[in-house]
Design brief:
The chain has 319 residues and is an all-alpha fold. The protein has helices at 22-28, 34-52, 58-64, 68-74, 84-112, 118-144, 157-162, 167-196, 199-226, 231-247, 266-271, 276-284, 292-318, and strands at 254-255, 262-263. Helix 5 (84-112) runs antiparallel to helix 6 (118-144). The structure holds fe (ii) ion (2 copies).
Length: 319
């Protein structure tokens, strides 16, 4: 079996619709400037539209235009949101895809590094087992909300960013970057479930989060172990994780900002072996990125132009 596969080689059945992850990557490098954000998303519009066609994300595109990603990613989920059910399904579907790629990341770590210690392989095997269960849990939660696998497009952004070919960087990217992001997202989902009194979501996600803390801990321990005699190697590995964390902050949607859509799960991260400095650093990574006001204003302009364009097309067709 091949080692170090490319994200494009990840196998899926016919239910899944693959999407280019470029829109996600772009969010990490956006400046705090409305016009630039609008320009970039207008350029990406054909690609974004194509990926939503025929999926449950199509009505979101219809309503918000190419900014639907900004709206979905950067606004917290409120119980009184008119698009609540669709947005919640979208998020659960995204998490299910993340669990699938975490399963692939962990099992690939087991296979890609044959020289690694036995204990490392046991940890990765344990993680793969957990992630397989998480995929099933999120499939059930998605169905509970009335959704199905394949309702929304999948991008392989998480696997792409996190799966380095170096063992210390692999666990830094997958177990600390990706799994750390999972802790933030799941803590946020638990808070949402508490707010609306949904015990099914609350309890299911709470069980999953307990595993994720263990997975991050594997990462915290193995980064130290793999780099223990080489401070320079440790430094490069931290640098790699910072880059991954910046991309996983989606332009400040996940950050320490007051207006963050997904706040950092500080307590969970401390429990999982992140130091207070590392957490502060992750919180500050996207400080230069666009603020919520900038993204809101850009989303408003993009939606307005999208509606104007549609109205014009309708008129031309009627003439
Ligand atoms: Fe998981
Ligand atoms: Fe995990």
């Amino acid at each position: 079996m091949k080692r170090f596969i490319d994200h494009e080689e990840l196998a899926r059945d016919s239910r899944f619709i693959r999407q280019d992850g470029a829109a996600n990557s772009v969010l990490a490098s956006l400046p705090d400037d409305v016009d630039t954000v609008v320009d970039i998303f207008e350029q990406l519009a054909p690609m974004i539209e194509k990926a939503t066609r025929g999926t449950a994300a199509e009505p979101l595109y219809e309503e918000y235009g190419p900014a639907y990603n900004l709206v979905v990613l950067n606004e917290p989920i409120h119980p009184d949101d008119p698009a609540l059910v669709n947005r919640l399904r979208f998020r659960l579907h995204g998490i299910l895809i993340g669990e699938l790629q975490a399963l692939e990341g962990a099992s690939r770590s087991l296979w890609d590094f044959p020289e690694a210690p036995w204990e490392f392989k046991m940890n990765m095997a344990r993680q793969a087992w957990d992630e397989a269960r998480h995929v099933q849990i999120y499939e059930k939660l998605l169905q509970y909300m009335g959704g199905e696998i394949g309702d929304y497009p999948e991008n392989t952004f998480l696997f792409e960013c996190a799966c380095s070919e170096d063992p210390a960087m692999r666990v830094a990217g997958v177990n600390r970057g990706l799994e750390g992001l999972a802790c933030d997202v799941f803590r946020d989902l638990i808070r949402y479930a508490e707010k609306v009194g949904d015990d099914t979501i609350k309890q299911a996600v709470d069980f999953v989060l307990a595993d994720e803390i263990t997975h991050v801990r594997f990462g915290s321990n193995w980064v130290k172990e793999f780099t223990k005699d080489d401070p320079d190697y440790f430094k490069r590995t931290q640098e790699f994780r910072r880059e991954v964390d910046k991309r996983f902050s989606f332009g400040g949607a996940r950050s320490a900002r007051e207006d963050a859509a997904i706040p950092l799960a500080v307590q969970d991260r401390l429990e999982a072996g992140f130091t207070a400095e590392e957490i502060d650093e992750i919180g500050a990574l996207s400080v230069g990125g666009p603020s919520r006001e900038t993204l809101r204003e850009a989303a408003r302009i993009l939606a307005e132009r999208h509606r104007a364009k549609k109205a014009q097309q309708k008129q031309t067709a009627a003439e």
